[in-house]
């Protein structure tokens, strides 16, 4: 019997079939979790997490957390950057804001002193004048000769407005600048 070597398409179809089977198995496990009562969920929790169930957790939260852990074990968890952001929120740290993520290939345009500057977002940095830079701030400093907040220079972040005072407002109306 002659067997022909499997093609890439056959291999891809086989992998898809395995992935579908894995997804179906996980979906069945989660459906089973939904059918458990609170005592059964508590037992599942202790078996899965190897520690006692926090008293404040409702049946719904227990089921959701167990279902998440099942999916996490099967498909992987959060990346470290996302974990750090969530941990800071859990601590109540409101100063850390998630960085804006721009896709590779995004083009930023800025006209400065009559010259149009084009920056392309690349993996791990930015390309300006055929040279790769780690940050927009470095590029802004190259363009202007002074330190700038790069995202602000390229219009990705709003400028902070100066606080208005009645005295300053009155002097502006009279055309006097301090």
Description:
The chain is an alpha+beta fold and 178 residues long. It has two domains: 13-90, no CATH class; 107-153, no CATH class. Helix content is 49%, strand content 12%. It has seven helices and four strands. It has helices at 8-34, 38-49, 59-75, 80-90, 136-144, 150-153, 166-173, and strands at 107-112, 115-122, 125-128, 131-133. A four-stranded antiparallel beta sheet has the order 1-2-3-4, covered by helices on one side. Strand 1 and strand 2 form a beta hairpin. Helix 1 (8-34) packs antiparallel against helix 3 and helix 2 packs parallel to helix 3 (59-75). The model is unreliable at 174-178 (pLDDT under 50).
What is the distance, rounded to the nearest whole angstrom, between the alpha carbons of the first and last residues? 94 Å
By helix and strand content, what is the structural category? alpha+beta
| Overall average pLDDT | 82
What's the helix count? 7
Provide the succession of SSEs.
HHHHEEEEHHH
Low-confidence stretches: 174-178
Give the tally of β-strands. 4
Helix share bin: 40-55%
Gyration radius, rounded: 28 Å
Count of separate structural domains: 2
Portion in beta strands: 5-15%
Strand order of the largest sheet: 1-2-3-4
User: What would the principal axes of the Cα set say about the shape?
Assistant: elongated
Largest sheet report: 4 strands, antiparallel
